[in-house]
Amino acid sequence: MKDQSTSTTATLRRLWPYIKPVRKPLSLSMCATLGAMLCGLGIPLITQRIVDGPIAHRDLSALPWLVLLVLVLGCAEAALFYARRRLIARPAAEVEAHLRADIYRKLQRLPVAFHDRYQSGQLLSRASTDVATVRRWVAFAVIFLVVNTAIVIIGLGVLFWLSPLLGAVALACTLPLVLMSYLFESRFKVVARKAQDQAGDLTTNVEESVLGIRVLKAFGRGPGLSDRFSARARELRDTELAKVKVFALLWAVLIVLPELGIAAQLAVGTFGITNGTTTIGTLVAAVAVSAYLRWPVDSIGWLLAETNQTSSATERIYEVLDSPITITSPEEPRALPAPVRGHVRFEDVRFAYPGADREVLRGIDLDLVPGETVALVGATGSGKTTLTALVPRLYDVTSGRVTIDGVDVRDLSLEDLRGTIGAAFEEPVLFSASVRENVALGSDELDDAKVREALRVAKAEEFVEALPWGLETRIGEQGMSLSGGQRQRLALARAVVAHPAVLVLDDPLSALDVHTEAEVEGALRRVLHGVTALVVAHRPSTVQLADRVAMLVDGRIAAVGRHHDLLADNAEYRRLLSTMDEEEEVAAL
Ligand SMILES: Nc1ncnc2c1ncn2[C@@H]1O[C@H](COP(=O)(O)OP(=O)(O)OP(=O)(O)O)[C@@H](O)[C@H]1O
């Protein structure tokens, strides 16, 4: 139990950098809460004075003052609770905002390999639900955990002061409760973490089915997936019910023990009144104090549950924040010799995906002279996409090196490297933003003229002009409101907008129909002139764009040469091209 609670405290202590800037309003809010609770605790003591004074002596002279005091305490309690809420709202929201911003920033900096490992729904639930759990804890649970513990101790002290015997009775009933609450904590933590992970999986499910709604509808897989979703939802429900079960047991004890305590106090107190050792006022006050302490005592178990839940939410958040950023700029980056020529070389490059024992690339040597376009061809799974990903350092080579103008890409700052390279991928990812924002992708240096030029190059200008607000038209999530070809052309415009020296295109023409492809190809041919480009090609027509072709077979370069030479001399190349031809014909059908 000790280890468990130590680790809970240690985990929560990690939130300190976020809580530290708001510690003043947080402490003030805590003081206001304590003040309010103390006001409430004072009322039974005045009741004692009323019972043992004006009522016992039938003398009402002091009554107005005592009633006024109750009124003042009541108003002060209300005012302080109001202040508590006002004081805590902003700091709690600030903690949430900072935490969320840091997670987002970290997610941007983490390497692609990290994102391969984590489901997006899991990351989504960490950045939303878990962060909200932390906010609730800061705004409420941590304050009441401290204040209620203090009030229970003070209240027990008051009971002992009123009557040591009545105090001892209350203590005998409170101690087991507090002990049970702490014992319950460790059981709850396990089930709370499980529920949070399952909620993350469920978020992934919802996200994937929303993004893939077209595929699911087209294949009529909606009902099947609904069943799978329901099964997962049931798992989560079962875990939530297990949580309730653990909690219900504690709750039952929490209810019964204080009732027993009050009954015992009434019995002991009445006995004391009859033999003259206790006054009626003292018994009334003791019972009132005990009743007042019920919520602070009852709440401790629940507040500990919240604390546990927050601890596992913090743990999940820090799994992201602690993940190492393996792809970073070097401490002393080298600069590319000016002007950048775009001479790209792969030197004995080997690569295995993190955690995989099989190498995807096994000794690649390839030299792209400045201004040259090299098409990468190969059977599916031969490693073409992987090879292109090594140039902008989406992954780092396992051994060997990739250089631009003789400088290892790992010796360049990421900013310089990625500023030198333009990229477009097979899946043209667009954001819920305007066309201009999608092409410029947050760069302030790219004005409208540059964006328009890039659109012209990608043969996208015409359809963008036809959109209701031209460049300013917001395109829907993932660009769903555009056709596949239109999305591809926007992705191409994005790749060329900053005039990069090196272009890495992972089959950028896959979604284009034959006519549009011819148009974009024509435009691309102009762009490719003067730029070094590595283009993954799945169609013979794309291959024709290239000055040379490199054929990948099982992670190695089996042949490099001009398309026509390879076609004449290399049987394997001919075979590959004929399968590509067949695929193209199928695609054209
Ligand atoms: N993120 C990843 N983690 C682990 N293995 C991966 C990952 N991405 C790809 N692979 C594996 O690496 C190998 C090469 O994949 P890659 O995508 O580079 O092939 P490709 O030649 O581009 O294929 P295609 O023509 O079908 O696009 C495949 O066996 C694939 O399963």
UniProtKB/TrEMBL annotation:
Q: Which CDD domains match?
A: ABC_6TM_Rv0194_D1_like (cd18543)
Please name the Pfam families in this protein's record: ABC_membrane, ABC_tran
Q: Which UniProt keywords apply?
A: ATP-binding, Cell membrane, Membrane, Nucleotide-binding, Transmembrane, Transmembrane helix, Transport
Write out the GO MF terms: ABC-type oligopeptide transporter activity; ATP binding; ATP hydrolysis activity
Q: Where, per UniProt, does this protein localize?
A: Cell membrane
Where is each ABC transmembrane type-1 domain found?
28-309
Bilayer-crossing residues are 26-47, 62-83, 137-159, 165-184, 246-267
Annotated membrane topology is: Multi-pass membrane protein
Identify the GO cellular component terms for this protein: plasma membrane
Q: What domain of life?
A: Bacteria
Kindly indicate whether the keyword Cell membrane belongs to this entry. yes
Q: Which family does it belong to?
A: Belongs to the ABC transporter superfamily. Lipid exporter (TC 3.A.1.106) family.
Descriptive protein name: ABC transporter ATP-binding protein/permease
Species for this entry: Umezawaea endophytica
